[in-house]
Specification:
It is built from seven helices and two strands. By secondary structure, the protein is mainly alpha-helical. It has two domains: 1-72, no CATH class; 73-152, Orthogonal Bundle (N-utilizing Substance Protein B Homolog, Chain A).
Length: 152
């Protein structure tokens, strides 16, 4: 599985976790990998795979560990996002945009294997795929402010 695919699965796991009590997180992660493959037919007749959890055990362990580490840092991540998102506190943000911001900010702050620019670019790509029309520019703007703030 590519890094992009791993990141997308991590995003989906984090997004789903936001809808369940923390006590059910582990069970929800297991269910995520047990879910059947899901496809959708586009307007042009082509088929797009929405969910294909074909991860091996090593990838599943990596994804669960990364998602758990991000969930453990949510208060800190949300505080940093709130500090730069003028007029858009995390409580008011759409869940897709917020989940993308949390994932990217975690990668910027704690995953030294991922350069900041890569984390931002991948976040924008997730926003294009899963967000609304204004999501990519919103995500890019918030992350750019966060990176500038962290550098100061």
């Amino acid at each position: 599985m590519t890094r992009r695919e791993l990141r997308e699965h991590c995003f989906k796991m984090l997004f789903c976790a936001d809808f369940y009590p923390a006590a059910e997180t582990e069970q929800q992660f297991v269910r995520y990998f047990e879910a059947p493959e899901e496809d959708e037919t586009e307007q042009d007749g082509s088929s797009v795979t929405l969910h294909q959890p074909n991860a091996d055990m090593e990838e599943m362990n990596y994804l669960v560990k990364k998602a758990e580490m991000i969930l453990a840092k949510l208060p800190e991540l949300d505080e940093k996002i709130d500090s730069v998102a003028e007029g858009w506190k995390t409580k008011r943000m759409g869940k897709v945009d917020l989940t993308i911001l949390r994932l990217a900010l975690y990668e910027i702050l704690y995953d030294k294997e991922i350069p900041e620019k890569v984390a931002i670019n991948e976040a924008v790509e997730l926003a294009k795929k899963f967000g609304q029309n204004e999501s990519p520019s919103f995500v890019n703007g918030v992350l750019a402010k966060l990176v500038r703030t962290e550098a100061e």
